Amino acid sequence: AKAEGRGEIRFFEAEMDRMLHDRRALQADLALSVSRNELQLFYQPQSRISGEIIGFEALLRWDHLRRGFVPPNTFIPLAEETGLINEIGEWVLREACREAASWRKPLQIAINLSPLQLRQGDFVSLVHSVLLENNLAPDRLVLEITEGALMDDYSRAVSILRRVKALGVRIAMDDFGTGYSSLSYLQSFPFDKIKIDQTFISNLDRNAQSAAIVRAVLALGHNLDLITVAEGVETPEQLTILRNDGCNEIQGYLIGRPQPIEEYAAIVGRSTGK
Ligand code: C2E
Ligand code: CA
Ligand code: CA
Ligand code: CA
C-alpha cells in the first residue's frame, strides 16, 4: 500500500507539472496574441426595461489560431497573474472609447475593469486622457467593477473610483449578490448602477427564493437612488417579472448577444468600414 501511495503522489506531481506547463503555454500564447493585436471586442446591448437600447457592454474575445475560442473567464485570470492585464485593460479602454466616439448616437459604452488596473498609479489620468483624445463625453463611459475587485485595497479603491467619478464617468457594481460585503460597499463606493448577477435572473421564473432576492435588491437599489440592471435576461417571463418589480435596465440574450459591432451598426449609427 505504501508503494501504491508513492505512486499516487508521483502521479499527482506529474499532473501538477502538466497543468502548470499548460498554463504557462497559454500565457505565452496570450502574450503573443496581445502583441499582435489579435484580441477583439464584442458588444452586447443594454436596454431600458421598455426595450429601448441605451448602450453596449464591451466583452473581450480571444480567438486563437490553434486553440480556437478561449473564454475570458479562462484567460483574464491568467493575464492578471502575469500582469499582462494592465496592457489588455488599457487596450480595451482605448478601443471601446474610440469605437463609441464614432457612433452617431450618443449611447453608453460599458467596460469591465480588473482590480489590478485600479492599482496602476495613473489610472485616473489614463481615463481622463482617453476621454479627451476621443472627444467622448465622460457620462457615456461606464466602468463595471465587481465587489471582489474592490476588496484588496479598500480605501485606495474608494479614492480612485471617487476621482474617476468626479470626471463624470459612471460606475457600476458588477455581479451584485455573488460576493460577501455588497451592502457596505454600496455605502462607501460612488456607484451609479448595480448589476444583479445572472445566477439570480436565470432562476427568477422557477425559484421563489431567487425572485425574493431580486425583488429585495431592486427595492434596495431604488432606495439608494441607484440604477438597477438585470444581467442574463433570456426569457419574456423573466422580463415581465423584472418589469413588475421595477427594474430599470436589462441585458441578456433576449435583447441581443455579444457580437462584433458591425452587427449593431444600424442601432449605433455607425458608418460602414473603420
Ligand atoms: P460579466 O462582466 O459578468 O459579463 C457578462 C457575461 O455574461 C458575458 O460572458 C456575456 O457574454 C454573458 N451573457 C450575457 N447575456 C447572457 C445571457 O442572456 N445568458 C447567458 N448565459 N450569458 C449571458 P463573457 O463574455 O464570456 O465574459 C465573462 C466575464 O469575463 C465577464 O463577466 C467579465 O467578468 C470578464 N470580462 C470580459 N471582458 C472583459 C474585459 O474587457 N476586461 C475584464 N477585466 N474582464 C472582462
Ligand atoms: Ca460586466
Ligand atoms: Ca456581470
Ligand atoms: Ca461575471
UniProtKB/TrEMBL annotation:
This is Uncharacterized protein. It comes from Pseudorhodoplanes sinuspersici. The chain holds residues 810 to 1083 of 1091 of the full protein.
